[in-house]
Amino acid sequence: MPSRKFADGEVVMGRWPGSVLYYEVQVTSYDDVAHLYTVKYKDGTELALKESDIRSQSSFKHRKSQSSSSSPSRRSSSRSRSRSRSPGRPARGRRRSASQSREHKEDKKKTIQEASLALPVLVLFKPSENNTKRYNGEPESTEKNDTSCIVLEQKLKPDLEVKRVLEQYSLRSRKDDKKKEEIYSEKKTFVAVKPIEKVPTKTKELEFGGRIGTFMMIFFLPATVLYLLLMCKQDDPSLLNFPPLPALESLWEGKAFGIFVLWFVLQAVFYLLPIGKVVEGLPLSNGRRLQYRINGFYAFILTAAVVGVLLYFEFELHYLYDHFMQFAVSAAVFSLALSVYLYVRSLKAPEEELAPGGNSGYFTYDFFIGHELNPRIGSFDLKYFCELRPGLIGWVVINLAMLLAEMKIHNLSVPSLSMILVNSFQLLYVVDALWNEEAVLTTMDITHDGFGFMLAFGDLVWVPFVYSLQAFYLVGHPTTITWPVAAAITVLNCVGYYIFRSANSQKNNFRRNPADPKLANLKFIPTATGKGLLVTGWWGFVRHPNYLGDIIMALAWSLPCGFTHILPYFYVIYFICLLVHREARDEHHCKQKYGLAWERYCQRVPYRIFPYIY
Q: Member of which family (predicted)?
């Protein structure tokens, strides 16, 4: 194994990928497996560079001085060879003037080269973070930055044409011309700003407690689901009243497993239907963009039609309530089998298709987080399909089954007001997610996390069987609420939904088109990645306003269950813990990605989720 050349903390000169430009960087770490140095630029950007792209400061300066000192000797030797070969040379005075003319052209070419080198830097760093004179606390608009780059490029076009003509009639050797052509092609590639291919590195920072934590989570998550469902079945679902463990044979039913598989296949068929628009996701590490068909809302409509037909033919939908535990176990077994398949196929996946967060080299951790980022069977994206379809739509069907079970068990002609509120609030949430399906393509689940046990179990088991806990609880523990209380809870849910939807819409619209005139009133902090960080609107209020709206809605879903037991409030308690943890992950990734710009954003927006609290 070759030894490393540069130590951590050493200040060196690093080549910007895809260019011939070197910048002062600091070595932060070294990957012994991939043999890559992680370096940090002055603007806070962190990149992984090969050792061949890094030079010490002393050698870099020595190379520059050596180049300048050798230039006169080459010119003098060229003139001496030219005198010995030329049969008819002009007078000495004319030779001197011609030499001066050539030197003048060389100086002009050098000036043009410097100008052309300045162009790619401005194109890549349009919202430059290092230029503190331009940044005065109020960021410039993206439209203005784009226009300035276009004007500069137009001004430099005539100079570039002059440069090509001068090179065509140059008297320098062909070897030097070949080197200049290679340098010019590199600069031309850099001006185009082609996607930079990142070499995947091993995951160094392990989340969820590392190998031991993820190993325990694989058993803890199914046990939690089992515990919650058993508690809801009890007459006294208090925390101190631990439910008796059922017989293992009672937890499994082949018919329930068959219905779950049929449900999964039905949603897969709806996913493959050629309806809905096709959009591109965010660029991958190799610059490629995957295509996704947006038809989740159509799948929901078709599912509603199928359920309506079943009810018309008097299919007992409350069968779900009677065998709810068996369905949960069937979903858990299916998700485990799917996770094993995903990990086995990821072992043959190319390096560039592995997840940045699930490539640690440890079996337990990669199995839980997900080793492959976007596992696909042809055009069928397994992670994207499971993210919204079987679990989210299944959540609505389960709620409906609980509503019908409540009416049958308690001999009601209409559902209780509490059950109607829970079903209505959660139906709105699911329909909103499916209507705005395209927004999920920018979430951490799609862009960063691989598809492993965490997402497979979460999408297929946790979402449909834990998020429906309030409706399941109300069947066995009916709660009566008055109309004024119901109105107050409805207002609370509407406030949470308004914050959630308007914040997400504001973010998504800004990502699609920052120069939209409708967003002219929004101010943002520019970053080295070309994206902007909003500091006005909802995103200037707290850093994650969509999480705030989510938590308010979660509270509104639990309030119809009353205050007799804490069990119905498990969802809101869990959701606060989940979003606080996810916010911490977002903070860490954004600090690495945006560097100093993120620090400025945190100074402008000090509160994370809860204003004046957290």
A: Belongs to the ERG4/ERG24 family.
